[in-house]
Amino acid sequence: MSLTAPLAFPPEQLAEVHRLQALYPDRRAALLPVLHMAQDAFGYISLEVEEYVAGLFDMTPAHVHEVVTFYTMFFQRPKGRHVVAICHNLSCHLAGAPRILTHLKERLGVEVGETTDDGRVTLLSVECLCACEHAPMMQVDDRYEFDLTPARVDRILEGLR
Amino acid sequence: MTGERTLTRNFHRPDAHTLAAYRGTGGYTAWEKAQTMEPAAITEEVKKSNLRGLGGAGFPTGMKWSFIPKNHTGPVYLVINADEGEPGTFKDRYLLERDPHALIEGMLIAARAIRSAVGFVYIRGEYVEPWRRFSAAAREATDAGYLGRGFDVVVHRGAGAYICGEETGLISSLEGRKGWPKLKPPFPAIKGAFGAPTIVNNVETICHLPHIINRGAGWFASLGTKTQGGTRMYSVSGRVKRPGVYEASVAITLRQVIYDLAEGVTGNGRLKAVVPGGSSAAILRADEIDVTMDVDGLKNAGTMAGSAGVIVMDETVSIPEALMVVARFYAHESCGQCTPCRESTGWIYKITERIVEGRGRKEDLDTVLDVARRGAGTTICAFYDGAVGPYISYIEKFRDEFEALIPK
Ligand SMILES: Cc1cc2nc3c(=O)[nH]c(=O)nc-3n(C[C@H](O)[C@H](O)[C@H](O)COP(=O)(O)O)c2cc1C
Ligand code: SF4
Ligand code: FES
Fold it and tell me: What is the CATH number of the domain that holds A28?
């Protein structure tokens, strides 16, 4: 973010923030929904974003930071344009998730937690996504991808630009 | 044998999530009926139905509702636990995606019983499609005048943390904090969300209500056992021919779930072990599956019905490896507030990992058992007890397998 363009939501999104805050008996309850919005708008939750969001809630940045770090879905560093999160819990493990993870690492050339050099994909390995009937499975951005095989993984990765 | 299906009866319809389809199959008629009933009469009906919470703890639903202080005049909140996260469980995902109006109608009924004007639906952050589906249904229900006339629904997204499924952790998270569980008492029914009396119920629990109101407590109770009424949804995964979600009576046996509903075991075809109620339930051996799946049946078998997530393992599965995967989960998800939970989950994961890698020590198994037994029951929330269940049962029931991996 450059210094000349201070980080802020455009007016429509600010209105949405106020709508969300009014839904709850205590406006601070809108913090998670607003952090989701902020991550969509700014790419990840930097310290600067934390400070901005804290201002929207009259909270301390420290409080926002404590919340951001508690949840797995908030990124504190830039992430790839796509996030691929393979489930490594029991049912997926039994269905061959470790093999799929190895395949993903090879294809993407990254370890878990890393982003490809071209900024295309961040690879994660996560706990049960509760779609164990389709194990092994993974989440790709907003979508669940089911019944994975190496060939299916290749096709999915090809679709990510 | 598997009896009647109610919760899942419309799942095969591609348009089941729409208001038109829901109304076309009798949707919202129970809400019409409930509006002619006194709140106390609704609670009484739910008590008589023997409906027990299906989120994990199995607490009688009508009784929980009756804990709301009678003379209370301020707001009362209904909170729906759609933070489904128990490994091996995926039923609420189906309900949110395929029958969201059943949840809305159930919420209207529950809200009338507890005199709540606002309900919060806390949906796990990863469930984007279920969240969209449910939000769309809530908009339809508002446009049709079911919501917004005395009862509003707020849809809330989590952000990734298993512990937010625990009801007091969920409330902390709903309030915009990290999802730290709180000591009980006070129970949420006395002092819950935003300091007000709050009822937290699971999605599936609430989805049963329209049928109970329409068909009566007696009908619902007769579907189950003496102490638990109804059907429930079994999430079956692991080494079975047909993994999936199946609705059947709570009186069905675990053997029937594995061999009739899911059509039997894959891998080498021979059952070794099964987890009957999500990963926090103690494991059962192949010779322990002739038990009914109701809360008391599984409790008597030394395990728990939990969320009815059934994870099946055939003889080729390594139990120590399975425990390592489960232990990794608890180590990752502990919220860190209580010392026994924070420390033991981390250490036990490390120990199981070194055992699986052939670096275990002779004393490791007894150390794990000792640490697990001592911490149980001492923590703020039941998360740690849920970790202890697998630690102890996997090792006690399959000790030979662990010992075989430890260098002499
Ligand atoms: C660690 C932990 C995780 C839990 N996760 C869930 C969950 O994902 N969904 C759920 O409905 N209940 C979950 N529960 C149970 C809730 O605390 C609570 O009992 C339940 O939501 C009450 O609803 P019910 O009575 O309708 O089952 C969890 C409990 C614990 C201790
Ligand atoms: S038992 Fe574990 S998860 Fe529950 S409050 Fe204590 S540290 Fe947190
Ligand atoms: S174990 Fe992978 S989705 Fe549940």
Answer: 1.10.10
CA proximity to B383, closest of B86, B175, B70, B108: B86
- Distance (Å) from CA A125 to ligand 3 centroid: 11
Name the residue with the closest Cα to ligand 2, atom 6: B338
- Nearest CB neighbour to A132, from listed B173, B235, B333: B235
> What are B246's strand-pairing partners?
B234
Q: Note whether A96 and A129 are same-domain residues.
A: yes
Q: Does one domain contain both A38 and A86?
A: no
pLDDT (tens place) for every residue of chain B, 408 residues total: 456 799 999 999 999 999 999 999 999 999 999 999 999 999 999 999 999 999 999 999 999 999 999 999 999 999 999 999 999 999 999 999 999 999 999 999 999 999 999 999 999 999 999 999 999 999 999 999 999 999 999 999 999 999 999 999 999 999 999 999 999 999 999 999 999 999 999 999 999 999 999 999 999 999 999 999 999 999 999 999 999 999 999 999 999 999 999 999 999 999 999 999 999 999 999 999 999 999 999 999 999 999 999 999 999 999 999 999 999 999 999 999 999 999 999 999 999 999 999 999 999 999 999 999 988 888 999 999 999 999 999 999 999 999 999 998
CATH no. of B319-405: 1.20.1440.230
Q: What CATH class does B19-222 carry?
A: alpha beta
Residues A87 and A65 reside in one and the same domain: no
Token reading at B122? 């806390």
Cis peptide upstream of residue A136 (ω within 30 degrees of 0): yes
Give the closest residue to A124 by CA, choosing from A105, A146, A145: A105
| ipTM for the complex shown | 0.97
Q: Is the CB of B336 under 6 A from ligand 2?
A: yes
In this structure, is the dihedral angle defined by the CA atoms of residues B58, B62, B63 and B65, taken in order, positive or negative?
Answer: positive
d(CA A145, CA A9): 32
B322 near A CB under 8 A: yes
With an 8 Å Cβ cutoff, are A129 and B128 in contact?
A: no
Query: Do residues A31 and A63 share a domain?
Result: yes
Would A2 be classed as within a structural domain?
no
User: What is the fold of B231-314?
Assistant: Ubiquitin-like (UB roll) (3.10.20)
Taking the Cβ of residue A144 and every Cβ of chain B, the question of whether any pair is shorter than 8 Å is answered with: yes
Residues A44 and A112 in one domain: no
In the numeric block, which tokens belong to residue A93? 């493990």
B358 token code pair: 């052939």
Same domain, A65 and A86: no
Alpha-carbon Rg of chain A, whole angstroms? Answer: 18
Residue A77 lies in a domain: no
Look up the domain containing A99 and give its range. 82-158
Identical fold, B19-222 and B231-314: no
Closest CA to B234 of B221, B247, B218: B247
